[in-house]
Design brief:
The complex is a heterodimer of chains A (29) and B (79). Chain A has 29 residues and is mostly helical. Chain A is built from one helix and no strands. Chain A has one helix at residues 2-26. The radius of gyration of chain A is 12 Å and the shape is rod-shaped. Chain B is built from four helices and two strands. Chain B has a two-stranded antiparallel sheet. The chains are: A mainly alpha (29), B mainly alpha (79).
Amino acid sequence: DPNMKGAAANEGVLANFFNSLLSKKTGVP
Amino acid sequence: SDCSAVLEKTREFFQICDIEGKGFITRRDMQRLNGELPQSAEELENVFDTLDTDANGYLTFEEFSSGFSEFMFGPGVVS
């Protein structure tokens, strides 16, 4: 299902984004 | 409580994106993070589009926090 794939990909992008914000906040890469 | 800690964190993240304190995030704000976060401009666009659920070009705190909740707890937790 291409829609499911798209959603999963977006979730990964979101997770990376929030992880980066977490790293930025704490200064831990 | 855990809940208020998450809310606090969400607020901090929102403020990192909303540099001028407008109360919402635009696509342009997101692009500005390009130099500060490891994500590419395209990935940041993707993040913006994913969080901007009503696709009006403005990311409100509510939209942002529901996206963050999904990241923290999985989809469907916050209605």
